[in-house]
Amino acid sequence: MSDLRMSLPSTSTPAPLSLILTHPGGSHKDEFLACCLLAAVHRVPVVRREPTAEDLADPSIAVVDVGGEHAPERNNFDHHQFPADHPPVCALSLVMQHLGIYEDARKFCDWLEPAEWFDTRGPNVTAKWLGVDRDTMNKLNSPIDVTLLRRFAKAKRLEPGEPLWEMLSYIGEDLLAYLRELRSRLDHLAQHSELWSIDDHEVLFLPRTDPIPDEPSAGIGRYLESIGKDTRVAALIYPDRRGGGYGLSRHNDHPRYDFTRIESQPDVHFAHARGFVAKTSAAEVTRLRELLDLAKVPQASS
């Protein structure tokens, strides 16, 4: 069992697989990424061919984006049999649901919903849904996408240790790690952060903890989105990982604060020339509030 399997939610830890099977021919992002996740978790070969009835009945074989049924108890993940008006879900969606990561992925992977639309509704409808023209969709293509999907489409069987299989595994590992680490970070922020109400806005304050996170400010934006405070919070105060003080920064470049206004303060050792961030050796909440107040841009009287 890989470390990644151990890191998945305990209620969703999947049974071991012996094979990942997906359709031959052209490849799309949904089955490619679904295979990436399954390869990262199970580290078994990927085969591209039509499934047999025996494959569909065997729970040790994951059948992805082909086979005409969604039966996660037997590791069958196809969406093509869903009715035309079914909400946009693709093979990747179904695998993520099975692994217990779909809800977090929908919240924190901005690319996922467009990928679901693209695979189930096509490029023209997806472009309209996104509010862009069809040509804009073409401009978002990358040689990375083209080469990975083309090479994957040409393969009949990929074994662990082969370069393309390892690339699939890397992509799956990084996606799982991102979601796992972000969830842990959001839980940390929910437990430790405070919201200060100041005039017509709020400020998020994250006190120093032991141990201190590697990147103390990481995930704060996503956390504020998740609690519906993204537009309400104007500034952030968080531990400085390079010292015993704190960093102060604007959230989403909010105009209410300009931290060049505190650059002359004796306990401020850095203020960016554009005013969006400063660092201070101050550690007391009272002093941090004073610095915040000094950095506040006066509002024009009406």
Mean pLDDT: 92
Largest sheet: 6 strands, mixed
* Terminal Cα span: 65 Å
The coarse silhouette is: elongated
Spatially, the strands of the biggest sheet line up as 4-5-3-1-2-6
Number of strands: 12
Structural descriptors:
302 residues; 11 helices; 12 strands; single chain; Diaminopimelate Epimerase, Chain A, domain 1; elongated; 41% helix; alpha/beta; disordered N terminus
Kindly summarize this structure in a few lines:
The protein has helices spanning 3-7, 29-42, 53-57, 91-99, 102-108, 112-130, 134-139, 143-154, 163-192, 220-226, 285-295; strands spanning 19-22, 46-48, 61-64, 70-71, 76-77, 157-158, 194-198, 201-205, 233-239, 246-250, 268-271, 277-280.
Describe the structure.
With 302 residues, the chain is of the alpha/beta class. The chain has two domains: 3-184, no CATH class; 193-295, Diaminopimelate Epimerase, Chain A, domain 1 (Roll), CATH 3.10.310. The chain is built from eleven helices and twelve strands. It has helices at residues 3-7, 29-42, 53-57, 91-99, 102-108, 112-130, 134-139, 143-154, 163-192, 220-226, 285-295; strands spanning 19-22, 46-48, 61-64, 70-71, 76-77, 157-158, 194-198, 201-205, 233-239, 246-250, 268-271, 277-280. The strands form two sheets. A six-stranded mixed sheet has the order 4-5-3-1-2-6. Strands 7-8-9-10-12-11 form a six-stranded mixed sheet, with no helix packed on it. Strand 8 (201-205), helix 10 and strand 9 (233-239) form a beta-alpha-beta unit. Helix 2 (29-42) runs parallel beside helix 4 and helix 2 crosses helix 9 (163-192).
